[in-house]
Structures are given as structure tokens and as C-alpha cells.
Amino acid sequence: MAAMTSPTPKDSEKRLGVPSRNPLPLSASQEAQVRDLFYARVRKQCAEEIKAFAACALGRTFSVSFACRAEHRAMNGCMKLHATQEEHDAAREEWFALRLERQRQREHKAKVAAAQEEFVREWWGLPEDVRLSRQKDLDKLNREERVGGMPAKDRPIPGGPSTR
């Protein structure tokens, strides 16, 4: 039993932004992003086997399954070897680590869009209410990324209106 102790604080600090070993549930699009990272990591580790199979399959159609059987088995074996739960957890940790970068990219896109809209509004002499129509979209982009579902009704949203 002594060997099964909980991780030390140093171990939890090493982990890159995942709140726990079983992290919060993500939305479907966020899970798809994690899955894309996972597949990219596995493909990167098996790049040589994939290249060998692709080279064998080049110019073949029906005969690929017969002529490239050894390369196909080597590629699948490599991918099965590296497509583990630990690799999926590492991809999830990488996704959580990249959250701040994605937030900065969204903010930059919002600033560029606002500047372009301001230019078009001034250029064409549009009324002020046209610019205010995008204010809700800009406010939505400035909010933090949601992880773990919807916030509670009585919990104030950071940066949102006060509940007084």
C-alpha cells in the first residue's frame, strides 16, 4: 500500500494545466481538438512506417492490400503501440497548455475585425447603431473559454455584469 501514495505537489505542478487526472468534461468541438492533437502525435511517432506504406501504395488501387501487406501491418502495429491512454492524456494536457495562446488569437482576431468594421463604417458614413450591432459578438469573444459546461445561474461570470 505504501507504493500507492498520492502524487506529491511537485508532480502535480509538472502537469501542464490539467486540473486533475480525470479532467473536466469538454465540449464536442474541444474534444475534437484534443483528438486531432492525439492523432497528430501518434502520426508523428509513426512517420517512417506511414511513409513506407504510402510509398508502397503509390500508383496502386486494388492490389494495395496484397502488395503492401507487410508495410500496412508495420504501420498499424506502430500506431497501436503508440495510441495509448497515456498519449491521449498527454494530448489533453497539451490542449490545456495551449488555451492561453488560443485566447490571445481570438482577442487579436476580434481587434482586427473591430478595426476593419470601424474603417468601413467611417468610409461609408454608416450610422453609429451599425457599429453597436457587433458589440454583443465582441463581448462574447472577450469572455473566457468554457471548460466543464455551463456556469451556475447564481455564480457571477468573470468580466460580466454584477448581480446586485
TrEMBL record:
Residue ranges, compositional bias (Basic and acidic residues): 135-156
Which InterPro entries would you find in this protein's record? Cyt_c_biogenesis_Cmc1-like (IPR013892)
Where this protein primarily resides, as one coarse class? mitochondrion
Coiled coil region boundaries = none
Query: GO CC terms on record?
Result: mitochondrial inner membrane
Q: Which Pfam families match?
A: Cmc1
Please, which domain of life does this record's source organism belong to?
Eukaryota
For region Disordered, the annotated ranges are 1-27, 135-164
Q: Give the PROSITE patterns listed for this entry.
A: CHCH
Where is this protein found? Answer: Mitochondrion inner membrane
Which UniProt keywords are listed?
Chaperone, Disulfide bond, Membrane, Mitochondrion, Mitochondrion inner membrane
Keyword Transmembrane helix part of the UniProt annotation: no
Q: Give the record's family classification.
A: Belongs to the CMC family.
**Function per UniProt:** Required for mitochondrial cytochrome c oxidase (COX) assembly and respiration.
What is the official name of this protein in its record?
A: COX assembly mitochondrial protein
The protein's organism comes out as: Hirsutella minnesotensis 3608
